[in-house]
UniProtKB/TrEMBL annotation:
Region Disordered, residue ranges: 499-524, 538-576
Domain MobA/VirD2-like nuclease positions: 73-171
Domain of life from the UniProt record: Bacteria
Species lineage: Bacteria, Bacillati, Actinomycetota, Actinomycetes, Micrococcales
Signal peptide: none
UniProt feature, compositional bias: Low complexity: 503-523
Name of the protein in its database record: Relaxase
């Protein structure tokens, strides 16, 4: 059960909205399921109208108006308690009991006769647009004796109360709490901005699926309405502007070997970047924000790293980069250049073509890393969070390089990123044991600029799918069924589409005449062998998401970080 808490100062406005038609005419038969004793004497469960809403608002507001008490931030405390559509519907009696227990847990009642109670009401008006059964609770924070109710840490207390109510009433328990995960939600405005385009993307991708299958399938118009809605909702999540930015930042962070390179890679993807300096300093960066380039005449919309994802705050990102004597100085120079819109200070490896031999090296190292993960215990959250973040970053970098609009790679990156976002920072700094995944992200970020083509990408994809399988195993073993199901669909199934496309490209390239520089014969043989092995395993039906994590004794995950070299150059011109 998800509580959503907000504050305001217009009780009449809130009540009028709750008994109205709703933003999408989704409200039906608004009525009370619970409230303070005096209120429930006058109102039963009959359908409410505007007159009843104003009467209830006057009753709730009376202590504040009588005593003339002002509450900073607003005296109207509002919370919605929502169930997933898959959980079905609850009765009015059940919602009434849940509402009363929730108000007690929040401390808005009489505290067993030691305080004057707050006036409150719980309204039910049908399911949401997404089909979620829910209620709304409105509370006047001014108690009947004119004192103010405490709202200290009310967001956290609401979450704690919801977890207790899930157990008491047999509701589905929130998996992210058990897994200590926490992702940012979407505001209605964010989703509304992309609703129309998401519907077009969903229809276009369904048509592509029909063409790939080669079997008779219903047209988009003939699809069941719920399936169409689910497909559109998935595209909304992919195309929310904040998600696009998070994907670009995550790909740049994973591909980068240091903070200065991170700034340069973000700028190369077209993002606007600005640092947040420490007070009175211009050489100490404490955070950052990014924005997409706006259309002509519009202002950019900025998002801080922490609002993009809990794993994308600057302190957490710094844990994954080596600490060198010049790290802070080099990074500060690039941050300052980005803020002022000047050209990059010192171009690095992101401006050069990677060594072709690295494709083979990183493919093999990721395979060894997957073997080591078999011995990592499920409760080692720091390791699994790091693996998920790096793997999500690799797919994000690949998506940024080859997908003109969010597709299968973007969906895989987003699904994996949910396993990477923990609400607590790791107790110990992240060890440099995932350099091979970061190297893979660096290679995939340059996928459109050459490399070894589809064959090498397919071999690397195989190993990244195996890492995703390990994350799936960990989620399933931890009892996080919903996250495991998301990984199975938005990672395994979508990456199978990517694999099929790479296999087709590899077959075509083997019969075509070579028109560009090719890797050495030895390297090509190694890559072809790896590709054939990967495709054979998948075709034999060996599920990449069914590895085992049997041993309780972890081995240190510290593969040697490969040394990479770049050709010297004098690329100090404007950014590309």
């Amino acid at each position: 059960m998800m509580p959503n808490v907000s504050r305001g100062d217009r009780m009449a406005g809130l009540m009028t909205y709750l008994v109205g038609k709703g933003r999408a005419n989704e409200h039906t038969e608004p009525h009370l399921v619970a409230g303070d004793d005096a209120l429930m004497v006058w109102h039963d469960d009959a359908e409410l109208g505007d007159d009843a809403a104003r009467s209830i608002a006057r009753h709730l507001d009376r202590p504040r108006t009588s005593y003339g008490v002002e509450v900073p931030g607003g005296h109207v405390w509002h919370a919605s308690l929502s169930l997933r559509a898959e959980e079905g519907m609850r009765t009015d009696a059940e919602w009434g009991a849940i509402a009363r227990d929730f108000v007690t847990a929040m401390g808005f009642d009489d505290n067993e006769g030691t305080k004057a109670p707050c006036r409150w009401v719980a309204v039910r008006h049908g399911v949401s647009k997404a089909g979620n059964d829910h209620i709304h609770i409105a509370v006047n924070l001014v108690r009947d004796d004119g004192t103010k109710a405490s709202i200290h840490h009310d967001f956290h207390r609401a979450q704690t109360a919801a977890r207790a109510l899930e157990v008491k009433y047999g509701l589905e328990q929130l998996e992210s709490t058990k897994g200590e995960r926490s992702t940012r939600g979407y505001s209605p405005a964010e989703q509304a901005r992309v609703q129309d385009s998401a519907a077009k993307f969903a229809e276009k991708k369904y048509q592509q699926q029909v063409e790939r299958s080669g079997e008779p399938m219903p047209s988009w118009a003939e699809l069941d309405g719920k399936e169409r809605q689910a497909r559109v909702a998935a595209e909304v999540r992919l195309n929310v502007p904040r998600n696009d930015l998070a994907r670009s930042v995550r790909g740049a962070a994973t591909s980068a070997d240091n903070e200065a390179e991170f700034v340069r890679r973000m700028r190369r993807t077209g993002l606007l970047v600005r640092p947040r300096f420490a007070d009175g300093r211009t050489d100490v960066v404490t955070g950052y924000s990014v924005a997409a380039r706006p259309e002509a005449g519009q202002r950019p919309i900025w998002y801080g790293g922490g609002h993009l994802g809990r794993d994308l705050t600057l302190p957490r990102l710094r844990e994954g980069w080596p600490d060198t004597p010049t790290r802070a100085t080099d990074a500060a120079a690039e941050w300052s250049a980005a803020k002022r819109g000047r050209r990059i200070v010192a171009p690095g490896r992101e401006s050069h073509e990677p060594d072709p031999e690295l494709w083979t090296r990183y493919t093999r190292e990721i395979g060894k890393l997957r073997d080591k993960l078999r011995s990592v215990p499920i409760d080692d959250r720091e390791t699994w969070q790091s693996v998920a973040r790096q793997t999500a970053g690799a797919f994000a970098a690949w998506s940024n390089a080859v997908e003109s609009e969010p597709g299968d790679l973007a969906a895989a990156a987003d699904a994996l990123s949910k396993s990477a976002q923990t609400f607590r920072r790791p107790v110990q700094p992240q060890r440099a044991g995932l350099a091979s995944v970061g190297g893979a992200a660096m290679l995939l970020a340059s996928a459109t600029r050459g490399g070894q083509g589809p064959a090498a990408q397919a071999a690397l994809l195989r190993q990244l799918m195996n890492l995703s399988g390990a994350i799936y195993d960990a989620a399933k073993a931890s009892g996080e069924a919903r996250q495991a199901a998301l990984l199975a669909t938005d990672v395994r199934e979508r990456l199978t589409h990517v694999r099929q496309g790479l296999a087709s490209s590899t077959s075509t390239s083997n019969t075509a005449t070579a028109t560009a520089t090719r890797p050495t014969t030895q390297t090509r043989a190694i890559v072809d062998e790896a590709v054939q092995e990967a495709l054979a395993k998948i075709d034999r039906g060996q599920d990449a998401c069914k590895g085992k994590t049997s041993s309780p004794v972890p081995d240190p995950i510290e593969p040697v970080k490969p040394r990479t070299t770049t050709r010297p150059g004098a690329d100090r011109g404007p950014e590309r």
